[in-house]
Amino acid sequence: MRADQVIIQPVLTEKSNLARESETKKYTFKVDPKANKLEVMQAVKELFSVTPVKCNIVSVKGKPKFTRGKGGHIAGTTGNWKKAIVTLAKGEIIQAVEGL
Predict the structure, then answer these.
(1) Quick one: pLDDT at residue 100?
(2) 3-state secondary structure (DSSP) of residue 2
(3) pTM of the full predicted structure?
(4) Dihedral sign computed on CA atoms, order 96, 48, 91, 60
(5) Comparing C-alpha atoms, which of 6, 13, 35, 2 is closest to residue 97?
(6) Looking at residue 99, what is its pLDDT?
(7) DSSP three-state, residue 92
(8) What is the pLDDT, as a whole number, of residue 69?
(9) Nearest-angstrom CA–CA distance, 84 and 59
(10) Nearest alpha carbon to residue 13 among 91, 100, 97
(11) How far is 31 from 11, CA to CA, in rounded Å?
(12) Domain total for the chain?
């Protein structure tokens, strides 16, 4: 799997921004559901030219959603997805995510 197929997009939430701005520099990405820790770390190294130290992966379950239609309420869910939290070496940042 190519590096640009492994990492889909960065996750920019309030919690992930606090982790990114902390001293440990943890970046959160939405990744391919078939990707493992080693593939994610290699993709981060290749795409952003940084040294990842550690990677944690979480499978996120989809949230329930409801919509109103002609026949009443229709129940459904958002899709399941996989999240990777990558810790970088001291003093390194990913400029594409930081907006520099």
Answers:
(1) 63
(2) coil
(3) 0.88
(4) positive
(5) 13
(6) 75
(7) coil
(8) 85
(9) 9
(10) 97
(11) 10
(12) 1
| Spatial contact of 20 and 97, defined as CB atoms under 8 Å apart | yes
Q: Domain containing 35 — which CATH number?
A: 3.30.70.330
Residue type, position 90, single letter: K
Q: Read off the DSSP letter of residue 38.
A: H
Write the single-letter amino acid at 41: M
- Tell me whether residue 96 is in a domain: no
pLDDT for 98 = 82
Assess if residue 56 is contained within a domain.
yes
Q: What dihedral angle (degrees, nearest 10) is formed by the CA atoms of 87, 88, 91, 97?
A: -90
Residue 51 lies in a domain: yes
Angle (nearest 5°) at CA 75 between 71 and 80: 150
Q: Which residues form the domain of 64?
A: 3-90
- Is residue 98 one of the residues assigned to a domain? no
* pLDDT digits (tens), the chain, 100 positions: 899 999 999 999 999 999 999 999 999 999 999 999 999 999 999 999 999 999 999 999 999 999 998 888 989 999 999 999 999 999 999 998 887 6
